[in-house]
Design a protein that fits this description.
3-stranded antiparallel β-sheet, 32% strand, mainly beta, single chain, globular
Length: 452
């Protein structure tokens, strides 16, 4: 696979589409929540399995789906996983479905505020939102704003909670044909929600916040030496129409550069990922036109980390072990999958210059996670297969137990056209002390980098 020179890749890290996006095809005015059953709709949203787990004819949890039997299970596989298994690149080990209840504080925040939440179909912006899941009602194909509402449910979703940390966060670049590991990068990754907080004080907002920042991401590369101390700070505003502010610190230059916008669809450090791929989708709601395509039962990578056969790679001083990888080229996580209720959501870039024609997300109905994503190139062909494996927090690090926050635990981004992949192994932690507010300031980048 042809790679950009390092300096070029770094300098072009962060730009977002210049077009201001509006949810096209909507009527003007407000589309309001409609909940004739009151708060029962919230309970149903967070516990879709109250009356039983999802089933599918001929499917029994525990089966291994492989090239030989894949046709039998085609109906519960998304098109990307069907293709991967049919080609013999990977086999899926299934387990019984379990309910993954999100924190009571997040559910309570939803109940307190959701009746006041509206989305302006002309601008696509939220009105009346404080915290929790903005639109807990079941989406309907008859609702022209259903896709937009699902997008906002993710954008204001639980994700890492009020604060999150991945350290270490190990990227491996691999040739899918040979399995050769071409590069290993060790990163630390931190998030902080300034607004719409539900768990850690202050609630709901950190003040003062004169710029009205909603959320920040801070990333630092710890190795190898040629990119060590590269740092990235993204500040996303509560006003979704406003472009992110992005700052880049290059270790070899020892200075911070402010970038006017972020190029989310360029390769991140020469990997198979774009900035837009982070956490499932890392961009503004306004950058896409959203369409709800229906509800179905699909196999999703949600599991219990401590019950897996784990890797002996990259031993940690605390004894933590990462998810192992196997399959074709070592490109696929050796994890378990379960049948879950999902919403199929299509996102078409508003920017006509995007290399992507669309993304298809399979949104987990209970957690709101984007664990499965298909990315299509400009010709409309399936380009990338994106897996984010999540673990139940009670079966990973002891410090995450009881948090109720599903933990990002592994990833696989496979470029089907170039037969190349980037894999990720996480040590994810829910601990606000690891992501202090000072970390999300430009001065911290200078101090952490070793000078101006």
């Amino acid at each position: 696979m042809k790679k950009k020179p390092l300096a070029t890749a770094l300098a072009a890290l962060l730009t977002v589409p210049s077009a201001a996006a509006i949810a096209a095809g909507q009527s003007t005015g407000f589309v309001e929540n409609n909940s004739p059953t009151g708060d029962a709709v919230v309970d149903a949203s967070f516990n879709p399995y109250a009356k039983g787990m999802p089933t599918s004819p001929g499917y029994t949890p525990g089966v291994t789906i492989n090239k030989e039997n894949v046709e039998k299970y085609k109906d519960i596989l998304d098109p990307g996983m069907y293709l991967v298994i049919k080609n013999g690149w990977y086999q899926v080990q299934t387990k019984p479905t379990f309910s993954e209840m999100l924190p009571k504080s997040y559910r309570d925040a939803t109940k307190a505020d959701y009746k006041n939440v509206k989305v302006d179909a002309k601008t696509g912006q939220l009105d009346g939102y404080v915290a929790g899941r903005p639109f807990p009602e079941e989406p309907s194909l008859k609702d022209p704003a259903a896709g937009l509402k699902l997008a906002w449910n993710f954008q204001r979703g639980l994700n890492w909670g009020d604060n999150g940390t991945i350290n270490p966060f190990i990227f491996q670049y691999k040739d899918m044909k040979s399995g050769k590991v071409e590069r290993v990068i060790n990163i630390e990754y931190h998030t902080l929600n300034y607004k719409h907080r539900f768990e850690n004080t202050p609630i709901p907002d950190i003040t003062p916040n004169p710029s009205n920042v909603f959320r920040s991401i801070y990333l630092k590369v710890n190795s190898p030496d040629d990119v060590r101390n590269t740092q990235l700070l993204i500040q996303r505003y509560d006003d979704d129409r406003k472009l992110d502010d992005t700052y880049l610190y290059l270790g070899f230059q020892r200075r911070v550069r402010r970038l006017p916008s972020a190029q989310t669809t360029d390769s991140f450090l020469g990997s198979d990922l774009m900035i837009q791929d982070f956490e499932g989708y890392n961009d503004r709601v306004a950058a896409m036109k959203w369409t709800y395509k229906g509800t179905k039962n699909v196999l999703i990578p949600l599991y219990r980390h401590n019950e897996l056969k784990l890797s002996s790679e990259f031993p940690q001083s605390n004894g933590y072990k990462f998810v192992a990888f196997g399959g074709q080229g070592g490109c696929f996580p050796e994890i378990t999958w379960q049948l879950r209720k999902v919403y199929e959501l299509e996102a078409v870039p508003v920017d006509s210059g995007s290399p992507i024609s669309k993304r298809i997300f399979f949104v987990d109905a209970q957690t709101g996670a984007l664990a499965r994503t298909l990315i299509y190139d400009r010709k409309g062909s399936l380009w990338k297969n994106w897996i984010i494996g999540k673990t139940d927090p009670d079966y990973q690090l002891a410090g995450n137990k009881g948090s109720g926050i599903p933990i990002d635990d592994s990833f696989s981004m496979v470029d089907l056209e170039s037969q190349h992949c980037t894999t990720g192994q996480f040590e994810g932690q829910i601990n606000p002390k690891l992501s202090p507010e000072r970390m999300f300031q430009v001065q911290y980048m200078r101090d952490s980098g070793g000078g101006n």
